[in-house]
Amino acid sequence: MTASSDAPTLPRKQAGLLLDEPLIFERSRRGRRGFAVPGGDVDPSAFLPAQLLRDPIDGFPEVSEPEVLRHFLRLSQWNLGTATTFYPLGSCTMKYNPVANEAVARLPGFAGLHPLVPDDDAQGALELIWELERMLAEISGMDAVSLQPAAGAQGELTGMKMIRAYHVDRGRARRKVLIPASAHGTNPASAALCGYSTVQVEGNRIGLIEAAAVRRAMDDDVAALMITNPNTLGLFEREIVQVAEAVHERGGLVYLDGANLNALMGVAKPAHMGADVMQINLHKTFSTPHGGGGPGSGPVAVRDVLVPYLPAPRLVRDGERLRWSEDVPQSIGRVRSFHGNFGMLVRAYAYVLALGGDGLTQATRMAVLSANYIRRRLEEAYQLAFPGTCMHECVFSDKGFEAAGVKTLDIAKRLLDHGFYAPTIYFPLVVSGAIMIEPTETESKETLDQFIDAMLSIAREARETPDVVRNAPTQTPIGRLDEARAARRPVLRWRGSVGE
Amino acid sequence: MRYLPHTDEDVRAMLAAVGVADVGDLFSDVPNDLRGRATVGLPPGLSEQEVRARLEQLAARNRTAAQRCFLGAGIYPHFVPAVVDQVLQRAEFYSAYTPYQPEVSQGTLQAIFEFQTLAAMLLEMDVANASMYDGASAAAEAVLMALRIRPKRSHVILSRALHPQYRDVIRTYATVAGGEAAHGIELVEAPVSGDGRTDPEWLAGAMNDETAAVVVGYPNFFGVVEDLEAIGALAHARGALLVTATTEAIALGLLKPPGAFGADIAVAEGQSLGVPMSYGGPGVGLFATRSDFVRMMPGRLVGEAADGAGRRGYVLTLATREQHIRREKATSNICTNHGLIALAVTVYLSTVGKAGLRELAIANTAAAHRVAERLVRTGKWQRLFSAPFFNEFVLRGVNAEAAWKTANGRGVLAGLPLRRWYPEFSDALLLCVTEMHDSAAAEALVGELSE
Lengths: 500, 451
Fold this sequence. Notes:
Chain A is α/β, with parallel strands linked by helices.
C-alpha cells in the first residue's frame, strides 16, 4: 500500500512565477548538511550499549540551509491564506490573524517558558490565563472557563465528559444525546466517544429547531442536547430559550457548540440562552491562526452546576499569587498535557485587549452585515437554502444549475480561478449541494464586491459556457486531482532513494 | 478599530443594498430579552503599542533562563534554527486552513506529506498521520485505536513509568469521572522494577487473552530506555499490541526506533523538534502505525495523487474514517491536526538532517551522562535507576528537595522533584541536560548540588 508511487512524476511547469518544487527528500544529496552541532565528535557507545543504537536514518533529508529555505518558501507560494486572499470558508471564521499577536506570542518570556517551572516563576503566564478565563466568561455569560482543551473538538469532548460525570453523580449516565441534523460531524463523534448514542432532531421548514420537537424527543434517558447557535445554516435559533427549557425540564443539559460565537458578541450570551456548557474556538472568533489545520484552541465555559467537573488542574488565586490546584476531586481529569495551547492563549488575549468590549461587539455587527450583504446580492443568482436574514454566514445550493450540469464542486473550483478560496461546500448535510459563505468582519466592501462579481460571473458562465466551470480550475499550479484513485491505492509517504 | 475596514459610507451602502435601516435590524431573530443583556463588559480596545506593553509586562514576570533550567519531563529545551520560525511566519502557511481545496493548498499538503514521511522514518513505522494535538492525546487515541483493532478485548496495561500526564489523558479519554468505564475499558498500571524499566516479570504474569495493548514510554518518564524487545515479545505472544509513547523525540535520532521492535502503534510528542516550550503548548503529536491498521487510524492523512495532466499533487485521503463523513461512527472526533507545528517539525528535521539529528542526539546523551557522572562523583547523589538513559536521569540524595529549593533560590532549576508524581520516590530529582546547557551551565548545576 505504501509502496513507491506509481503516479506519474512529471515535473511541474516552471515558468515565470510558477516554480517547480520537488519533495525535500528529492533534493537530498549524500553528505550535504544544513546544521552543525556544537562540540566535538563523540562515540555514543561510551554512554549507551551499542545494541540500543540505530544507524543514521536512511532517507532522512540531506540538504543545505539555503535549500531548506527555498523549498519551504516555494511551498508557501502554492497556498492561499487569509493573508493573501478572501477565504470565505463557512463555519471556520477565517478572519484576519493580527501580526502583532504573532510577535507577542514569541516574546521570550512566553515562548521560552517551561511548563513545570514553579508557579512563582510563571506568574505572568498565570495572570494571562486568569484574565483570559474571565474575559471569555464575560463574553459568554458563563460562570467559569478552562483553557486546557487543544481544539474545538477536544473542547466538545471535554464538555460531553463533564455532562456524563454530572449525570453519573446524580445516579446514572443516561444513554442518549440529541443532535440536530445540521450539526458539525464533531458533535456526534464527541458524543459517541463519551459512550452516548445519538438521536437526530430535524429542523423545521425554515431550518430551525422547535421547542416542541425537542420536547417530543426528550425523555429521562437523554443526557443532553448539543446545539449550535447560530446554527450551521447561519440562522439564529429563535426558540433557543424554550428549547433549553425543554431539555432542562427532563433533567438534561444543554451543550452549546460555540463554533459560531463570532455572530453573538454583544448580541446574545450563551448563558442566557440556557447553555450549560460550550466550547469557544479561539482560532475562529478570537483570531488565532488556523495554521493550515491547527493548532487551534478550544476552551470550555460552563454554568455553575458543571464547575466541579472542569478539567484538572484549576487555576486558583491566593491573594496576589496564582497557582495550579490539583485539588479538584470531581474533575473529569486531564484532556491534554500541561496547560493547553498556551501560545494560542497569548494571541487570543492580545486580540481581546486590542478590540475591547465595544470592538468585539462591532466585529460581530460587521460580520453579520457583510454576510447579509453577500446574501442579498447573490440571492437572485443562487438559491438560498433558507430565505430571510442570516447571521454571520449564508448558505446557498446548486439548485437551478442541474440543466447545465454544473455542481457545487464546479462552482467552488471556478472561484479558485478568480483568485478566491472556495466557501465550505456540501456542508451542512441538510442542504443538498450546500455553498456556505462566511465573510467575517475583516474584509472590505471592495473585496466583497469582487467576490460577488466573481460569483455572478460564474452563475452566468454556468448557463452560457458550462464547460468553463466544469473544467475549472485552470489558473492553479495543478488541476483537479484524482481523489478516488488516491484513496483506492494510498501513497502516504515518500519511499525513494537519495541522489548521489 | 484597526482590523475592521468598514467606513461609515461602506456601512450605509451595504445597509441600503440589504434593505434595512440599521445594523441592529439584522438581529431581529434574536429575542429582545437576550439582546438587552448582552453587553460585553470589557474595557475599551487598546492600540498595538499598549497591547504590546501589557504583554511585555506579563512576559517579564515569567522566569525563563533556559541555560539554568534543567527541566524536561515532557517538554524539552532545545535549540531551534532561525530558518524554522522564518518559515512559520509565512502567512501563506499560518493563515490557511485545512486544505479542502488542494489546487490552492499544495504548500500545506506537500509539507504534511513530508511530515508524514519524516514521522514514519523517525519511528520506523509504515505510515504516520498528519499529526495530533500533542503526545498525550496521541497516546489516548492510540489506546482507543488498539481497542478497535482488538474489539473483543478490554484490558489495557499502562506502564507506571509512562509520563503521568499521558496516563491521566488516557484515563480521561477511556473513562469518565468516578472511574466508570465509558467503553468497558479496564486500565491497569504496570509497576517499575528497580532498574527503572517496566517490570517484565509482572507483565508476564498480568498479561492474558483480555489484554488489548501494553503502553510504555520510550524513553520512559525517568529518561530510561525500556527493553522494548522483551515487552514486545510478551505482548505479541498474547496477541496484544505494543504501543510506545516518546516524549523526547530527539532520542529517536540515536536509539533503535519502536518499529524495530515490532511496535504496532508508536506516538511521540514533537515539541523537541523545532518548537518552543511555550509553557507546554502548542506541541504536536506524532502518530504512526503499521500499514495493515491504516484504516483504523484517527486523524487526517495526506496522500499522493495526480491531476488530469498527470502532474503529481497531494490531497487529503481516506477521509471515510473521519467525523465529517462518518459522524458518530468515526475513528475519532478529531477534526484538525496541529498543522503549523507539524510544519515546524518538518522544517526542523529537514535542516538538522540525517547526520545532524544523530549528532545532536549524541551530544544530548554525552552532556547528560557527563553531568550525571560528575554529580554521582560528589558522593552526595546516586542514580536511582541503573538502566541506560538518554538525556534525563533520576538522582537520589539526602535532603534532595532542600537542595533543589536552595538552588532554585539562586536561579538554578535543578529539575523536577519526583515526589510530586511518584510519592514512592522521595528525595529524588528528575534532571534533564540537553545541547542547550553549555559547560558553564553544567558547572552551575554541579556547584549548586554539591554543597
